[in-house]
Each structure stands twice: as C-alpha cells, then as structure tokens.
Specification:
The complex is a heterodimer.
Chain A lengths: L11 H27 L3 H25 L11 H31 L12 H5 L2 H22 L1
Helix pairs in contact in A: 1-2, 1-3
Chain B lengths: L1 H26 L2 H24 L3 H31 L1
Helix pairs in contact in B: 1-2
Classes of the chains: A mainly alpha, B mainly alpha.
Chain lengths: 150, 88
C-alpha cells in the first residue's frame, strides 16, 4: 500500500458526507420505529416525528443520488455512492463477525481462575458447626422472647 | 466490488479484534488476559494483511471514510433521538 497518498485526494463528498447523511437517516428511522411502537402519548408522537424525518432523509439522499426526479440535480455520483454503501455495510458486517468470533472464543476457553489462586485462608478459619450452633441459639432466644411477651 | 467487500470486512473484523483485545487484555483476569493478547495479535496480523492486499491507499481511504461517516451519522442520529426524548 502506498502510504504517501494525501488525505485531500480522498473523495469526501461522495463517500463521507453521503454516508453521514445515510447514517443519520437510518438511526432516526430505527429509533423512530422503536419509539412509535413502544412509546405512549407524547413519546409516541416524537417517535412518529423521528420516523418521518428519517424517511424524508433517506428519500432525499435517494433523489440527490439516482436522478429519480427531473429538475433535481444530483449531488452524489450513483456508482461511488453504491461503493460507499457497500464498504460501510461490509465493515459493519466484519465487525459483527469479529465480535461473534471473540464471544465464541471467550465462551470456549476456560477463563475461570483456578481455585488454588483464591485466598481461602478466611474460609479455612471458619468452623461451620460452631456458626450453625450460634445461629440456632439466636433463633431460640428470639422465639422464647416472643412467647414470654404473649 | 468484491475487493471492497473483502478489505472492508477484514477491516471491521480487525477493529473489533483490536478494540476487544485491548479491553480484555487490560481488564481481564489472568487467563482471560492471554486470550485478549491473542486477539491483539490476530488484529495486528489482519492489519498487516489488509495493507499487503490493498495496493491503493486512496481506494481504501475512500471506503474507510465511508464507514467512519456511516458510524458518525448513526451516533448523531441516536444523539438527536436522545435529545428529543429528554427535552420532551
């Protein structure tokens, strides 16, 4: 890879700005669907507003890219927009696969520390029989005091 | 098109490996830490492989800023949602 390439050579308008607007639209659409379905009252109205803004956003990007209507000049190149969308979705898919791989390995590998590493000195000092007797005595005392009160 | 899918898919996996590897190797217990270090090594290996297969930085850079733009847009969208809910 030629690492001497200049950042200004990158196509910021067709790749970054277009995906930024698409990202906002998708997030608004998803949160709008969620809020309008599960929300009640005022929250539901906000959900519908977010949903409609998200749809408008995505429709605007589509119109500004693919020349769907006459009289609207396209801002984004359709081929480059497709490339940008594919690369964004691919990277997201790669991240999801990587996370699943990590979770799979973590679940398969024995990650629990050995019991030898634990500090068991405190537990060794405990005499469980004595503790049990103390508890029974305390319970008996409370029962007796209740009976005396009656 | 397939070049973009492969290189960006590997980039996404690399980012997940490096991020999770750092977290696990730092916060993990003695055994988990070794697994975190393994993820870090795999992430660095993926980074080396990606730089070796993609011979055009401009091509890769465009795809990468598209991914960053999408993520940033998603975050901005969620912030808009939170502001709308909190302010209501």
């Amino acid at each position: 890879m030629d690492m001497s390439a200049n950042i200004t050579d990158w196509d910021w308008m067709n790749f970054f700005v277009s995906m930024l607007i698409v990202g906002i639209g998708v997030a608004l659409l998803a949160t709008g669907i969620f809020t309008s379905y599960f929300g009640a009252g005022k929250s539901q109205k906000i959900g519908f507003a977010l949903l409609s803004i998200g749809i408008l956003d995505l429709v605007a990007v589509y119109l500004l890219t693919f020349d769907a209507l006459e009289g609207i000049e396209s801002i984004f190149d359709s081929d480059l927009f497709t490339d940008a969308l594919v690369s964004g979705v691919s990277a997201l898919a790669g991240m999801v696969i990587g996370m699943f791989l990590i979770l799979f390995v973590l679940m398969k590998v024995d990650t629990v520390d050995d019991l030898e590493d634990l500090d068991l000195e405190d537990l060794e000092d405990l005499d469980l029989d004595e503790e049990l007797k103390k508890l029974e005595e305390e319970l008996n005392q409370t029962d007796n005091s209740k009976e005396e009160e009656k | 098109m397939m070049d973009i899918v492969i290189s960006m898919g590997l980039t996404g996996a690399m980012l997940a490996m490096l991020g999770m590897g750092l977290l696990i190797s730092y916060y993990g217990s003695s055994k988990t830490r070794n697994v975190g270090l393994l993820f870090l090594v795999v992430g660095i290996g993926l980074a080396y492989y990606i730089t070796s297969i993609d011979d055009s930085l401009i091509h890769f850079g465009n795809a990468f800023i598209a991914f960053i733009g999408g993520m940033l847009g998603g975050i901005i969208g969620i912030i808009i949602f939170l502001v709308a809910i909190i302010k209501s």
